[in-house]
Design brief:
Largest sheet: 6 strands, parallel
Oligomer: single chain
CATH topology of the largest domain: Dihydrodipicolinate Reductase, domain 2
Number of domains: 2
CATH superfamily of the largest domain: Dihydrodipicolinate Reductase, domain 2
CATH architecture of the largest domain: 2-Layer Sandwich
Number of helices: 12
Strand order of the largest sheet: 3-2-1-4-5-6
Order of helices and strands: EHEHEHEHEHEHEHEEEEHHEHHEEH
């Protein structure tokens, strides 16, 4: 099969580096362009990330000699060289919104890891196993942008991956209220322990904007399309606290859930999780986990170090489901924040867009 030509905008940052590693040997995608800020432009990728390569895997050989392009100055040229781009830039939100729209208007589909367009009401924010039907908004967005090929699709926040997928198959039982505390790895801030020594033996009870995202983004995912816009769901009511913890990778969530009527049994919930498959599994997309939701019976699981790499870091690990004194139940969830929660989730979304015909080869 002829591969799709792919560009990575913001390829030198931590999520950009993760995108580069995920393109290595990808069965559908060929890394063709890497773009970044003017200070990296003109250097080879190997030169541009020298001294700040944060991945455990070495730089892929195919990426090393690519000459980094200027993400803002070379939009038209980049758009002419690729079938679509991933975007993971570190800029102000209004600048990101403008840049992503420039790529879309240059007839280049954008699959974004950034939060800037998550609340644009005709931009789909998709977890492929949860709301693939939201891709049907793309024709409305193209009409607004005046494009034939170009559009923007985004993935959701890394912090919701440990609990929203677990709640999804339970929504039919009337999920009413959710309280969640997330314990988030330092790679979510684009950092390593070498670059953030203050995090060793420490916990920071604040991550800017994260609690609002954790409370609101699932409601857009559970929303519906109406009059060319995605209307967010009215419930469940979610309240969140988000803490930065001294873990390299893997966001853990402690979740509490109540149902409107009679709550399903623990056995029913475990069965729903075990049997749950989404569109990504039906289509057997290359990055899709075979088993999306894994439940561990051991009382001390899931653990970040042991379980974050499950199914290539694309599965969600669950455990400790039990009755609660204030809510109906509580459980613990874990997702790899730079794989399922960031670059890997965006790659899976791009695979879904290709499989469903929203991205074609030029």
């Amino acid at each position: 099969m002829e591969k799709y030509k792919v560009g990575i905008i913001g390829g030198t940052g931590m999520v950009g580096q993760r995108f580069v590693t995920l393109m290595e040997n990808h069965p559908w995608f060929q890394l063709t362009v890497i773009a970044a800020s003017p200070r990296s432009a003109g250097k080879t990728y190997e030169e541009a990330v020298a001294g700040r390569w944060a991945m455990t895997k070495p730089i892929p050989e195919e990426a090393k000699p690519l000459v980094v392009m200027d993400a803002q100055a070379d939009v038209e040229k980049i758009a002419s060289l690729v079938d679509f781009v991933f975007c993971a830039v570190d800029m102000k939100k209004d600048e990101i919104r403008a840049l992503e729209e420039r790529y879309a208007k240059a007839e280049c589909p954008v699959v974004s890891n950034n939060s800037a367009h998550r609340w644009t009401d005709d931009v789909p924010m998709v977890v492929p196993e949860m709301n693939p039907e939201h891709l049907e908004i793309i024709p409305f967005q193209r009409k607004r942008l005046g494009t034939k090929r170009g559009f923007i699709a985004v993935k959701s926040n890394c912090s919701i991956q440990g609990y929203a997928p677990a709640l999804h198959p339970l929504m039919k039982y009337g999920v009413d209220k959710v309280l969640v505390c997330t314990y988030q790895a330092i790679s979510g801030a684009g950092k390593t322990f070498e670059r953030w020594p203050e995090m060793v033996d420490n916990l920071i009870p604040y991550i800017g904007g994260e609690e609002e995202k954790s409370e609101q983004e699932p409601l857009k995912i559970w929303g519906h399309i109406q009059d060319g816009k995605i209307v967010k769901a009215e419930g469940p009511a979610i309240t969140a606290q988000c803490l930065r913890v001294p873990v390299s990778d893997g966001h853990t969530a402690a979740a509490f859930v109540s149902f409107k009527g009679e709550a399903p049994s623990i056995e029913t919930i475990k069965q729903e999780w075990a049997n749950f498959k989404g569109r990504a599994q039906e289509l057997e997309l290359p990055s899709a986990p075979k088993q999306f939701l894994h439940y561990f019976e051991e009382p001390d699981r899931p653990q970040a170090r042991l379980d974050r790499e499950l199914e290539g870091g694309m599965a969600v690990s669950l455990g400790r489901l039990r009755p609660d004194t204030q809510y109906d139940y509580k459980f613990v969830g874990l997702a790899h924040n730079t794989l399922r929660g960031a670059a890997g989730g965006a790659v899976l979304l791009a695979e879904l867009l290709c499989a469903e015909g929203y991205i074609d080869r030029k």
